[in-house]
Design a protein that fits this description.
The complex is a heterodimer of chains A (254) and B (314). Chain A has ten helices and two strands, in the order αββααααααααα. Chain A is an all-alpha fold. Chain A has one domain. Chain A has a two-stranded antiparallel ribbon. Chain A is globular. With 314 residues, chain B is an alpha/beta fold. Chain B is 36% helix and 29% strand. Chain B starts with 9 loop residues before the first strand and ends in a 6-residue tail after the last helix. The chains are: A mainly alpha (254), B alpha/beta (314).
Chain lengths: 254, 314
Amino acid sequence: MHIPSPRGAFRVWQRDLTIFRKFWKPALFPNFIEPFFYLAALGLGLGAFIGDINGQDYILFIAPGLLASNAMFAASFEATFNTFVKLKIDRVYDAIVSTPVNAEDIVAGEYLWAGTRSVLYGTSFLIVLTALGLISSWWALLLPPFIFLMGLMFSVMGMLFTSLIQSIDFYAYYFTLIVTPMFLFSGIFFPIEDFPAPVPQLAWFTPLYHAVNVCRELATGPSPAVLIDVLWVVVFTFGLALVPVQIMRKRLIS
Amino acid sequence: MKNGRAGADSTLVARKLRKNYGDFEAVKGVDFEVRRGECFGFLGPNGAGKSTTMKMIYGVAIPSGGELSVVGLDVTKDIRGVKRRIGVVPQENNLDEELMVRQNLLVYGRYFDLSKKSITQRADSLLDFVQLSERAEAKVGELSGGMKRRLLIARALINDPELVVLDEPTTGLDPQARHLVWEKLRQLKNEGTTLILTTHYMDEAAQLCDRLVIMDGGRIITEGKPRDLVKENTSPEVLEFRPRPDSLEALRELLAGEAEHVERSADLLLAYTHDSDELMRTVRRSEIPLENTLYRPAGLEDVFLRLTGRSLIE
């Protein structure tokens, strides 16, 4: 078992930050603007026909969930396409492993960076939601750290997939069969609990479901039950984190 | 030095070093020692095990058996320590394409936990050393092959390494670019840096290396100074005959009797001798038809041909 060194991970995170600082304006924009389309089309458009869900305006219902999906997309792109390019096309990791930074540090550094990027996107989106009056609780101040945690979680998932594939084409499977179904069936757009079995039971096993629950609770004022969702996210993230580390190490060090 | 077996001036010691990938044995038990300040070469054809040996030195391949100590540290126990003190010029360009030329050095220096001030100073003097100061703010993609290789060399020097490992430093470069790389490597050597390089070019090995090993099929087949290897393994002069195909056998028989030894490489017959004038006269007298003949002094490729029966570059 290879355990990453924090210092090495920090150096990799720093490299990603250096590049992000050059491209952040064009890179930030699409990911930032995307949730507003959902907010407008579904929250305002569809919301006009729906009225209330669980006693909330429809747009108020979906807004916090979009924070979670936004973090999922940001971290997923980072841990899939961006990581694959560094691994197989630009060979950035090959250069790094011949320095005192080891292969295991690289993976940990990419987790941290995906978390950071999610926070940058998510927090800017959160600020706008607050300005629009869609956030109603001071507990929302805990959202940025939770967005970081979500970034880590979806980065670990994406990295696991990346560590297993040989061709960039396989990401179509990941996004179509894993990311998109989660996006649609994790309770962002409608309460999943009202579905017949086994849909709610299945949803319980997906990370985005718990992420959405936490975001919604923090945006409106949480109940103690939210701790179970937080615990789920923590256990899933840290329980799985070292698996891609070992597989990626095998790909870089023979 | 570990076990006290190596000389005090050795910076790298390999004992019965092995590496296999599944059933394939890429390196089959090699022994060598590199002394501080020398340029040590690994010469051999593709697939000889040179690159695998290099990768074990800088920790990208883990030895399957034997011992390998680099800058006094066991690679299986303290690879981070080894990597901190050596520089690596890889065979394939892996510069960070998303960063500018100078930034490549700055970001790479951070991987060694060097202070920002010392990285900046060192980056500027290294760009100067590899003659890339004017391209400091260029994109990596805009550089020529030779410039990229020089930048890789500068990058490998950012931590002021005691030992620099170069895997085929001039493969794919045009002659002018190769000479510039050689000049830089000679300067480094003169400043006291230990260099280890792999190559399949004889002239490169002869020009740069103080000592070298010839590898073939995962084994070291001989070791020595380039000039001594030539002296010990072959005669000093070579005549390369290209006979007409139908007279190849006749010429081979004649040469077998007259020359010190004969090798065949495709449609060429190579005759090794101390007296090429005399041998040439004998061949002319025989009136065997020849298409052309070339005289040259013997070199490392003749050593390789003699020891393996094969050409180095096929």
